[in-house]
């Protein structure tokens, strides 16, 4: 009885279907075999690099860095926008009352009233002043290190820099 019920519920395997009206060559259309594929198209060995943007010509001495924020200076600190994969917020760098500690940050980075980082005043080897910024948020797998650098137009760019791996 189970066999008769099964036949009534499901169509037979060898019955005609509307798909049999169309011709399809033997072999799976998802499988690449020599019968179905033409000659391979010759391509440059570095074609994947072109697609990924690795072969872009850069002027000597100019590095493309990841800008994760733009800030403007105001009376006490800086205000601007911070943009990462997980954050897109308005943020401000407010002066920090150091108290008695000399290692305390010069600025606190706040977004929506919450501290998400700190910044220390530094001077580069070329004599330019900048802020060394550390961002730390529970959504980050590790702290993010960046520098707040003044641009030519007076705005300040927050440039992300990769942390160096620690020697074991």
Instruction: Provide the succession of SSEs.
Output: HHEEEEEEEE
End-to-end separation in angstroms reads: 71 Å
In DSSP terms (H or I, runs of 4 or more residues), the helix count works out at 2
Strand content: 25-35%
| Global shape | globular
- Total strand segments: 8
What is the averaged pLDDT score? 74
Q: C-alpha Rg, in Å? A: 30 Å
Sequence of strands across the biggest β-sheet: 1-2-3-4-5-6-7-8
Helix content: under 10%
Main beta sheet: 8 strands, antiparallel, barrel
Low-confidence stretches: 58-62
- Counting helices, strands and paired strands, the structural category is mainly beta
Give the assembly state of these chains. single chain
Key features?
single chain; 168 residues; mainly beta; eight-stranded antiparallel barrel; 2 helices; 8 strands; 34% strand; globular
Structure overview:
Strands 1-2-3-4-5-6-7-8 form an 8-stranded antiparallel barrel. The protein is globular and about 85 Å long. It has 168 residues and is mostly beta strands. Helices cover 8% and strands 34% of the residues. The chain has helices spanning 2-9, 47-52; strands at residues 66-73, 78-83, 88-95, 107-111, 114-123, 129-135, 144-150, 156-161. It contains 2 helices and 8 strands; from the N terminus they run ααββββββββ. The chain has a domain at 67-161. Mean pLDDT is 74; it is low at 58-62.
